[in-house]
Amino acid sequence: MPTHSQGIVNAGDPPSPPLPRRRFVGALLGSGFLATAVAFLYPVLRYLVPPKASDVGGDAVIAGRVGELKPNSGKIFRFGNRPGLLIHTSSGEYRAMSATCTHLSCTVQYRDDLQQVWCACHNGKYDLNGRNVSGPPPRPLQAFEVQVQGDEIFVRRRRES
Amino acid sequence: MAILRNKLRPFSIACFVGLAGFVALAACLGYGQTKDTCLDCHSALPDPLGVSQEKFSQDIHAQMGLTCASCHGGDPTSDDPDKAMSRKAGWKGKIDRKRIPELCGSCHSDPAYIRRFNPSLRTDQLGQYHTSVHGKRLVAGDTKVAVCTDCHSVHDLRAPSDPRSTVNPVNVANTCARCHADASYMKEYSIPTDQFAKYSTSVHHQALTVRGDLSAPTCTTCHGNHGAAPPGVDRVENVCSNCHTFQAQMYEKSSHKEAFQSASLPGCVVCHSNHAIVHPTDAKLGAGPEGVCMRCHTPGDSCDQARVALLISLGRLDEAIKSADQVLHVAESSGMEVSEARLGQDQARDSLTKARVTIHSFRQDLVDQDIQAGLKIAAQNLRAGKAAMVERNHRRLGLGISLIAVGIVLAGLWLYIKKIES
Amino acid sequence: MSPLRDVRNWLDQRLGWQDLIAPLRKKTVPLHRLSYWYFLGGITLFLFGIQVVTGILLLLYYRPGASEAFESVQYIMTQVQFGWLIRSIHSWSANLMIFTAFAHMFSVLFLKAYRKPRELTWVSGVILLFLVMGFGFSGYLLPWNTLAFFATKVGTEITGQVPIVGKPMMIFLRGGEEVTGATLSRFFGFHVAVLPGVATLLILLHLLLVQRLGISVPPKLERQWTANPSAKREMKFFPNFMLREMMAWYVALGVLGALAAVFPWNLGVKADPFVPAPAGIKPEWYFLFMFQTLKLIPSKVWFIDGDVLGVLAFGLLGLLWLLLPFFESDQPSRTKGWITRLGVFALAYMAGMSVYGYLAK
Q1: Is residue B307 within 8 Å of residue B293, measured between CB atoms?
Q2: pLDDT tens digits for chain A (161 residues)?
Q3: Given the DSSP bridges, would you call strands C234-236 and C300-301 parallel, antiparallel or unpaired?
Q4: CB C81 to CB A47 under 8 A?
Q5: Largest Cα–Cα distance in chain C?
Q6: Which of A10, B411, C34, C140 is 20 to 30 A (C-alpha) from C15?
Q7: What is the arithmetic mean of pLDDT over C60-69?
Q8: Which residues of chain B have pLDDT under 50?
């Protein structure tokens, strides 16, 4: 803080400038410090408050809720930066896999008439494990792990390392 | 001298024993275990009689244990050329072209025989060949047509899965082009010779040779390999629909199917060509040189109007996607997090692709369904991008205010320093 | 009188601090043409303080562990209020601090402030420089993105090249044979506990030494002032120099804020150990000169493996750099000359190699 030596002049100190000038400098510094302190503290305080969107953490994503999908149907959900396919098989199981076709990266879909995963672009077909069984696709679809907790369906990448 | 002789005798005995052993060893290690005198002479002869050991060792028949005599007959155990190549020993000499299919078929159409080598190998090639243009013309006396050895090569014949094989998918077009692209060879036939040149410009060729996508079609995929013949005007859709199912389904139900059929026009080929199948752009719907509709339709008629409407719809969605992309790009380069919207853009692009497929139904209402879905998504992403830009501007404003505050402090400190030091 | 004075008296009666800070009141800073270089140490300290504060804030949300690290940083950047600001400031300040640490070291070298009796200040400073680079190396891995993963792989691989002790050292650093989640845990421990602890102690030592020994002056000026004491020009540390230093600190704060807002630090793509390394992987800029040198050494020099030679050479150079003041001769006639020339060469080499490394494919 600026030294407001109210009229007391120390030996060796230069004569103090006229009052308005000193006040101006004082005001400037005071307001400046206050402004920068606010500019610093405001973001920090907002930062400390936890955000509403809870962090699920890890590779898990909620792909859907139990009851949302009828048996023998599928839906596309977001997995990281790519689409994923969640299938509710006719036997009641949930399967999940990457929805990006390994041929030319079109988005695949579940065909309830074929009970297979199908790519509309060039008629590629995959079975329910993601294995490429017919058409151009050169590789299987990456399969994901599905876990039903309560009424939420969690999908996560297969643990490798 | 005496000393030398004493040393020479054991030395020469050793040499003789060594040489004999070596010859015996070489004989035992001799290629194919069976004595094959044919190659002894023919590996040293010039073309066309020459077949080197090196070349023949690549041949899959040789690797399976067959010898020259298996096809050419004769006696491979005899060193005497007259005995080896005698008619009495069954020597056939150079096989007459007209008889080559039957010769190959003598094994390859015998399932019991082939089962001994590769049980899953097909044995219907000869039958198929007889249905082909090549097969039919050969029977009629034309020896210029392709026989087995022309495509599969001979003496260094490799399995089709070998990338060096002349009939590996990647090489098939080159093999067919050896005759079909040779204008002087094909002079007396009434078919064009520009197929290979045209195919080389196509997306299928690009996929096969550049991207290495073995699922991409080559000559034999559409024309057949052993039963090679053009699919026929009314069967072109069947060929294309094997991969392009959605487009084929739409086309089946469309007005064009009946129109083309009654005019004996070859379906898909009318707009997309048969060999020079390039990546289709929206210009195909246009009125310019790349436009296909106006080749048949009259300017101003209802179809022309429909065409214009379709083109406009596609253009609208394309524009919407591009402008959303642009905003998202600027937001991203300024450090804003827009990955959710970027993913959404993929969905919008999927809608556009779907709309372009639905064109094959030639129905404005169906195409509009896809267009509207896509426009909705693109609009959403545009909003997200704009929101990110607004947030970015907020940040810059916040920064500006903080910098002003810092500036005030700096000014104040500077003045204060001047004050206490003046 | 004023409330401030009352508080000061109250504290003084209980802490006796007036006696403690009395020498500080007398502290002076020499004034000459090159005085501006004296700011660098303080700025480095300020940036360290920023790192501690932003680092602690990041600790509230960051989760170490291969399956959560990237997502938690993404969470900070996208969901936490001003998370982007805290994280970007932390990243930018790290780079700025390494730069100012190097600049401080070189200015001390050229101003010859390492001479007797300040050898220990130099030694503690060089160790701090190494620690700061260690902070950079360990912190870089924490977001667990592709670039960081492979940079760490290459960096620890190079450590493994040192004969005899290299392999055990590499296993110690990596927490195993390969770079895995175990490496991340370990680097996290180094970055937030081990390095800060050691660095704090060394900083205290470094500052204590500076206080005790005063600010040094270049030799020529020193001779002049000894011969003619009235020519000596000084500035009081409190408040004059300190006010100027505050200005420098505020400028640094402004620069940091601007960098963080206009060029936020990017997130990258989550590390996947099974994906092959992207082409042209490079370490962060402060390691580029070493990396580029290693790339230029031929694979075999005589019978010695090129990389091993490079690593050993840098190790030796580091050790010699640490012990530099002890090579300085007392004789004035020899004071000018080779260490300065060496310093110029080192600076030119590091700068040149860094630029080369940055531009090379």
Answers
A1: yes
A2: 334 433 344 444 555 555 677 788 888 888 899 999 999 999 999 999 988 766 555 667 888 889 888 999 999 988 877 889 999 999 999 999 999 999 888 889 999 999 999 988 888 999 999 999 988 898 999 999 999 988 889 998 876 54
A3: unpaired
A4: yes
A5: 79
A6: A10
A7: 90
A8: 1-2, 30-32
Domain assignments of chain C as residue spans, ordered by start: 26-359
Cα C65 from Cα C68, distance rounded (Å): 5
Chain position carrying tokens 């060792």: B57
Q: Which residue has the higher pLDDT, B10 or C263?
A: C263
Residues 94-133 (A) with a CB less than 8 A from some CB of B:
103, 106-107, 120-123
Q: What is the DSSP letter of B158?
A: -
Domain membership of residue B327 as a residue range: 310-394
What's the confidence (pLDDT) of residue B22?
61
By mean pLDDT, which of C8-22, C115-129, C163-177 is the weakest?
C8-22
User: Roughly how many angstroms between the first and final C-alpha of chain A, as a whole number?
Assistant: 56
What's the total number of domains in chain B?
Answer: 1
CATH of A61-156, picked from 3.30.160.20, 2.30.42.10, 2.102.10.10, 2.40.37.20, is 2.102.10.10
Contacts of C246 in chain B (CB under 8 A): 413
Instruction: Pick B413's closest partner by Cβ from C85, C246, C263.
Output: C246
ipTM of model: 0.83
Alpha helices in B167-301 (DSSP H): 169-180, 195-199, 203-205, 219-223, 236-241, 245-252, 255-262, 268-272
Copy the structure tokens of residue B93.
């000499």
Q: How far is B383 from chain C (nearest CA, A)?
A: 17
Report strand pairing: A124-126 vs A132-134. antiparallel
Q: Do C77 and B396 touch (CB under 8 A)?
A: no
DSSP letters spanning C245-273: HHHHHHHHHHHHHHHHHHSPPP---B--T
Chain A partners within 8 Å of B213 (Cβ): 103, 136, 138
Q: Which of B100, B40, B49, B47 is nearest to B67 (CA)?
A: B40
pLDDT per position as a tens digit, B64-122? 988 888 899 888 888 888 888 888 888 888 889 999 999 999 999 999 999 999 999 99
Chain C residues closer than 8 Å to A36 by CB: 250, 253
CATH code for the part of the protein at C26-359:
1.20.810.10
**DSSP β-bridge partners for residue A98:** A84
**Residue B171 forms part of a structural domain:** no
Report the alpha-carbon distance of residue A25 to residue A17 in Å, rounded: 11
Q: Distance, in angstroms, between C187 CA and closest chain A CA?
A: 18
Which A residues 32-91 touch C at CB under 8 Å? 36, 43-44, 46-51, 53, 55, 57-59, 80
Domain range list for chain A? 1-49, 61-156
Q: What three-state secondary structure class fits A107? A: strand
